[in-house]
Amino acid sequence: MILKGSQRSGGQNLAAHLLNINDNDHVRLHELRGFASRDLKGAFKEAEAVARGTKCRQYLFSLSFSPPSSESVTVEQFEEAIGRAETKLGLDGQPRAIVFHEKEGRRHAHCVWSRIDAQTMTARQMSFFKTKLSGLSRELYLEHGWKMPRGLENAAERNPVNFTLAEWQQAKRQDIDPRWLKSTLQDCWQRSDSATALNQALQERGFFLARGDRRSHVVLDHRGEVWSLPRMLGLKTKDVRDRLGDGENLGTVEDAKKQIAEKMTPALRRHVEESRADFKERDSQLKNYRAEMVRLQRKVRDTLESQHAQEWQAETRARAERLPKGLRGLLARLTGTYKKIKSQNEAEAKATSERQAVERQKLIEQHLKQRAVLREREQELRQQQAERLSALRSDIGRYLTMGRSEPPRRDRGESRRKSEGRADRSASTSLKLTR
Fold first, then answer.
1. d(C-alpha 91, C-alpha 419), whole Å
2. Entry pTM
């Protein structure tokens, strides 16, 4: 499992985020331990109230558990991982809340602990928690036989195409896959040893190199969106300047935008917009399918929860009626019959709880499989859109290359024949003058 943790305050905002059903297909509050309140917001209010008796500001520790999307993980396996994380982090016995989320065909869990020890009124220290969680994550991958991400195998082998949230949002606005964008720019950089070579390599892929206002070198795509070259390459500005110079010979961003406007043909603009319109229409259809699927799944789960609640109440009443009362109850206690009936009731209650948990888990797995099919279609659509836009960018690069290419040179044979023809005409003219 991928484990991501953070110390934080703002319990009410965190509770609202964890219970948000707009960004998740399904949300389930699984456990509240060590709180008097039976709802998440009330529990976090308790944690905040206790923290006010200390100097601790980040009184909560939030940890997410994300297994591989292709694996089916039971509630018990999640609980085991949460317990091991609790021990490693030194949060044993602290009040905690567990929430399950299902989104895009994947199931993950969130666990939030109160860091404040009510006995000593001090906060539990969270030293080196990232290192501890990374080690536990590797252990979980190895124990379950899951394919481990390269970043967990060796910290030095992290994917160099990783990107920040700001880069992702900027690329998302432009319908550009930021992983493809970074990979493309890094490929052009590796194949170039000067600003001229880099500019040529970029234009072949539909990009322009320019001089930024505050950044020495920037890259523009065919729509005029500006990207910081050092940031996209993962290099320092000084390293980029050492290879490309200070950028004084480059045009400004405005010059590059004018050049793009001249080079970008209306036909290619129309193709790009048509591709985006087609993608939005098909993506909207899939979103509607997903919304309807989620609505039906929630209805089925609510029905099952209601059925379980009714069964539990009916069986609880039946078990309570078995226990003798009054004088019969006193005699039953003396003879040991009361204890036997109580043990039987406890065993039946445990069996009912386990049966309902199995039924709930089966339904969840069934819904995850249904959602996974739709998720595959969504991924295929996005992959097709990325490939289509990539092909259009290659076309743009070819047009840019054609626009700056030199006129074709004549071959040597043709030049020789024309030269001989000029010599013959010159000789003929000389003879006429001599006569």
1. 92
2. 0.54
